[in-house]
Structures are given as C-alpha cells and as structure tokens.
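Format notes (please read before filing issues)

Several people have asked whether sequences and structure tokens are stored in separate files. They are not. Every record keeps both together, in the order shown below: the sequence lines, then the token lines. Line labels are part of the format and must not be stripped during preprocessing.
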Amino acid sequence: MVLGRVLPNGVDNPFKDIRIDTPEGGEMEHRRPLNAKEVKQAEDDPFIFPLIITALSTGLRRGDVCRLKWSEVNLQAGTLTIKTSKTGAEVILPIMHRLGDVLEVALAERKSDDTKYVFPEAERMLRINPHGITYRVKKVFARAFMLPQEASQVASDTPDRVSLVDVPPEVLEAVQAARMSTAKRDKLIDLLTLYAEGKSYRDIEAERNISRGGISGLLHEAQRV
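Then the structure lines:
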C-alpha cells in the first residue's frame, strides 16, 4: 500500500499481487484501501461517516472509535491520546485534517460539557446492538465498491434527491421542530440561510469561521431532519 502511494504516476506496484504464506499456513493478502471518491460515498450516512473517517485516520478498532472520549481529544495540540482496548497501551495519534473537521462537527453538536463520548449515539449502539454498526459500515463499503452497472441500477431505483437550496422553508421548519440544543439550532438556521442565499462553502467558511467539514456535517444534519 505504501509503495502504491509513493511510486511515480503510471508506475505499477510490482508487489501488489504477491501472496505471503503465514506460519499458520494461510495467506497474507494485500488489500486495496478506499480512495477519496469511495470514502465520500459514506457521507450519505451521517451516523457512520464520522466513524469511518476516524477509523481511517487513526487505525483504531470499532470499539475504540465508538468509545472515543472528549478527555482523549486535544484539538489545540492536534492529538489524540488513547489507551487501546486490544493492548491497553497508550498511544498518541495526530489529528489529521479530515478527522479535525469531523471532531469540530461533533464538538458543535455536543449537548453539554458532561457529554463523555465524542460519538455518544455510536457508543450507545455499540452497547445495545454492535452488529448494527457493523451492518451500516458494510453497507457503505458495499456501495463504495459497487461495479458501475450495479451503481447505475441502484441509481435508477432511487428517487432523485432534492437540493436544500430548493426547499428552504420546509427545511427551516423541520429544523425548528427537531430536538437539538438552542445553540445548534441557531447555528444550523444561520448556515441554511446563507446556503439558500447561494453562498458557497468557501464564502460561509470565511464569514462564519467554520470549516468546510463542519459546514458539510451540519447540512447533512439538515437533510436528515
């Protein structure tokens, strides 16, 4: 995987098809990581998307991602300090740019300073129905690796999505009625108003000092409600 990232364009990785025998008699297979376009497909599931970005950015296991605590996050220093469930060892991980965007959205949605987990809904599902998280992740991956003809069939069976810009009154009404903190509701209404006026992500980022990842996360929340 590393060689595939550093080799010049057009140069094929000579080791990509090599299979290595393991001591147990099986084979070690080199698996292809998701590319940026495939990762973007996960945005259609706002519950799973931040979990996938966190996992891809850190290499943490499912439980460690879902149980990530705010006490382990240092946005100012740009690091995560985590004791992993598998080894119990403490590791310090950098907060990559995409993960930083996800954490900013989670921080904006944090209901109170007493909220222990970064992704409280995921932590709850992990306790109650861990297979539900696995199913949702597999569903995202299945869509990401779908063959072109399969994607075309799914697209033809799926109703067209309506742009938020086309339905601001309905969306604003739904946001007003949704259960969320007053601060989050005010922020979301302000963002929707700017977006409906035709402001770009870049414009909103400059005017409101909110990252594009944060803007995307809030707009997905608007679509959900």
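For reference, the curators noted about this record: The chain has a mean pLDDT of 78. The chain has two domains: 36-146, 164-224.
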